[in-house]
Write a structure and sequence with these properties.
Layout (H helix, E strand, L loop, with lengths): L2 H12 L2 E2 H10 L5 H4 L13 H4 L1 H17 L5 E6 L5 H9 L10 E6 L3 H10 L4 E3 L10 E6 L8 E6 L2 E9 L5 E5 L15 E4 L1 H16 L2 E10 L9 E4 L2 E3 L9 E3 L2 E2 H10 L3 E7 H7 L2 H11 L4 H12 L8 E7 L10
Parallel strand pairs: 2-3, 2-5, 3-4, 5-10, 10-14
Antiparallel strand pairs: 1-7, 6-7, 6-9, 7-8, 10-16, 11-12, 11-13, 15-16
Helix pairs in contact: 5-6, 11-12
Bound molecules: S-adenosyl-L-homocysteine.
The site of S-adenosyl-L-homocysteine has 19 residues, from helix 4.
Length: 347
């Protein structure tokens, strides 16, 4: 039975499902979910490409950032935790860039938080010394540096539409022909707001839970979290659910389990939750600002001087990572830290 058939049957028996339930099934259904069966990241035949897949300089600079923050923590034995490491490319570049930092590698326990079995296999090929966890809470206690690139965007969202008569939750149900379709709940009680009819508000319950796990970890032992993702500094009231297949946007309802399904990250919410939990918040700033602050241009120049025949490719990568029409501005970076640490590099 295909995932589509399973969802149709589920809805027939239980009624319409929330967008978050739909997204969770599409991404993580153990038999047919996108990440459980066919994640395709990086390269021309893939569904989408991420910054570490686009340029080795991305992971290298994050490596130097980690080395700097490890020094700021007082060079302890620590967990180097990556949330949603994909093919393990970022961590591989990070470790290469830090191999000459004395004591870094010896003190570092690599923990990969990953639910996808095929991606765990790819990560194990690149990172034989790592250990794996299904969630952040399962990583060993102690000082931690935590990184996550394009992890928050795949946490399922619920969506609420402002109608003339109040709020409605967006749901996935069936039309007369038993085809999956988006619909709306009856009006539900919701907050008073000035939102115009047509406004969509999104919440990500799993994001709230993750920030709670981060909060406990960073209060139990010193550490920092660096999160990089596409999203908004202030929510704009639009529907941001999107599905990508072979680098092309497809209809999220037409391809259950076959496409990568994501939503823009609400960085204002991340900052608000973290500040409420007495964590220090730096950013969000744009990816371009962050990478330039860490010396991306100098790094590209040095690599080009060492290997002039790569100069054009390096320029293209630089453009891809920082240009406003590429990843430079849509992508944001935020850092959450235990209290009483010096400011992090790059902010
Ligand atoms: N960071 C990588 C991959 C981004 S894709 C890169 O930049 O290339 C999202 C990653 O998060 C994948 O590895 C996916 O399997 C993982 N993932 C998605 N939802 C998850 C969850 N709830 N728990 C753990 N890992 C998850």
């Amino acid at each position: 039975m295909s995932l589509r058939e399973k969802l149709v049957e589920h809805i027939r028996e239980n009624g319409p499902m929330t967008v978050a339930e739909y997204m969770g099934a599409c991404l993580h259904d153990p038999e047919d979910g996108y990440y459980a069966t066919r994640p395709a990241i990086g390269g021309a035949t893939a569904d989408f490409i991420t910054a570490p897949e686009a340029s080795q300089m991305f992971g290298e600079l994050i490596g130097l950032w980690c080395a700097h923050e490890w020094e700021a923590l007082g060079k302890p034995a620590f967990n180097l935790i990556e949330l949603g490491p994909g093919r393990g490319v970022l961590m591989e570049d990070l470790l290469r860039a830090t191999q000459r930092i004395e004591g870094f590698r010896d003190n570092c326990n690599i923990v990969l938080v990953e639910t996808s079995a095929p991606l765990r296999d790819e990560q194990a090929d690149r990172l034989p010394d790592a250990e794996w966890a299904l969630r952040l809470d399962d990583a060993p206690p102690g000082p931690s540096l935590i990184i996550g690139n394009e992890f928050l965007d795949c946490l399922p969202i619920r969506q609420f539409l402002r109608g003339e008569d109040g709020w409605h939750e967006k749901l996935v149900g069936l039309d007369e022909a038993d085809t999956l379709t988006f619909g709306l709940s009856a009006a539900i009680p919701g907050p008073e707001s000035d939102d115009e009819p047509g406004t969509v508000r999104e919440i990500a319950p799993a994001l709230e839970a993750l920030i709670y796990e981060i909060e406990r970890r960073l209060h139990d032992a010193p550490g920092r979290v660096l999160l990089i993702d596409y999203g908004y500094v202030k929510p704009e009231g639009a529907d941001t659910l999107q599905a990508l297949k072979k680098h092309t946007k497809v209809d999220p309802i037409e391809t259950p389990g076959e496409a990568d399904l994501t939503a823009h990250v609400d960085f204002a919410r991340v900052a608000h939750l973290a500040a409420n939990a007495q964590l220090a918040v730096h950013g969000p700033i744009t990816q371009a600002q962050f990478l330039r602050g860490l010396g991306l241009e100098l790094r590209a120049d040095a690599l080009a001087r060492a290997n002039p025949k790569h100069a054009d490719r390096l320029q293209r990568e630089l453009h891809r990572l920082t240009s406003p029409d590429q990843m430079g501005e849509l992508f944001k970076v935020i850092c959450l830290s235990s209290p009483n640490l010096p400011p992090p590099a790059g902010f």
